[in-house]
TrEMBL record:
This is Protein GrpE. It holds the Pfam family GrpE. It is found in: Cytoplasm. Homodimer. Keywords: Chaperone, Coiled coil, Cytoplasm, Stress response. It comes from the Bacteria. Residues 106-140 form a coiled coil. InterPro entries: GrpE, GrpE_CC, GrpE_head. It comes from Anaeromassilibacillus senegalensis. Participates actively in the response to hyperosmotic and heat shock by preventing the aggregation of stress-denatured proteins, in association with DnaK and GrpE. It is the nucleotide exchange factor for DnaK and may function as a thermosensor. Unfolded proteins bind initially to DnaJ; upon interaction with the DnaJ-bound protein, DnaK hydrolyzes its bound ATP, resulting in the formation of a stable complex. GrpE releases ADP from DnaK; ATP binding to DnaK triggers the release of the substrate protein, thus completing the reaction cycle. Residues 27-37, 44-53 have a biased composition (Basic and acidic residues). Residues 1-53 are annotated as: Disordered. Belongs to the GrpE family.
Length: 198
């Protein structure tokens, strides 16, 4: 007679040690799933939402900056165009004001030429009157004459065309003026053409 006692678990073909291992691995898998879907999953989701929010805020800020840049560029373009128009208008107005001062001179010259019979003396007086009128018009525009005999020669104001020796004149002075110069304030409009002595 066989005295070996049969283990009911052995009979069933199950080993307690091998049965425990699948149960442990199943528990581990459950724990990992729980970890992924549980607290760890919530944390990742919260981080993702925070990053998404930051991205949206950055995109909104970028959009505002772009809009502001476009507005600034448009404003600058409008300012540039307006400035160009104003400069053109100022130049046009200044030219018109200058021409207006010379129109009476032109009118008097026309009247003088319309005279059929006049003496040389009358003609001379008429030309002198027109010259006086012209000088007044230039003065109103801030234009002053420069270049007169006896002035010290200044290359910034005078254009010397020749040099002469003159015992009666001081050294490096204007002896003769071929053509008067003109300036507005400190700006030279035309240099005086002169002859320099010594």
């Amino acid at each position: 007679m066989n005295t070996e006692e049969k283990n009911p678990q052995t009979e069933a073909g199950t080993d307690p040690q091998t049965d425990a291992e699948p149960e442990a691995s199943q528990e581990t898998e459950k724990a990992e799933k729980k970890d992924k879907g549980g607290f760890g999953g919530k944390k990742a989701k919260a981080e993702k939402e925070a990053m998404q929010k930051k991205l949206e805020e950055a995109e909104e800020a970028l959009k505002k900056q772009k809009d502001q840049l476009l507005r600034t560029a448009a404003e600058y373009d409008n300012y540039r165009k307006r400035t160009e128009r104003e400069k053109a208008a100022i130049y046009s107005d200044a030219t018109a004001a200058a021409v207006l001062e010379f129109l009476p001179v032109a009118d008097n010259l026309e009247r003088a030429l319309e005279q059929q019979e006049c003496s040389v003396e009358d003609l001379r007086k008429g030309v002198e009157m027109v010259q006086t009128q012209l000088k007044k018009a230039l003065e109103k525009l801030g234009v002053s004459e420069m270049g007169a005999a006896g002035e010290a020669f200044n290359p910034e104001l005078h254009n010397a065309v020749s040099h002469i020796d003159d015992e009666n004149a001081a050294e490096n002075v204007v002896a003769q003026v071929y053509q008067k110069g003109y300036k507005i304030g400190d700006k030279v409009v035309r240099h005086a053409t002169v002859v320099v002595a010594n």
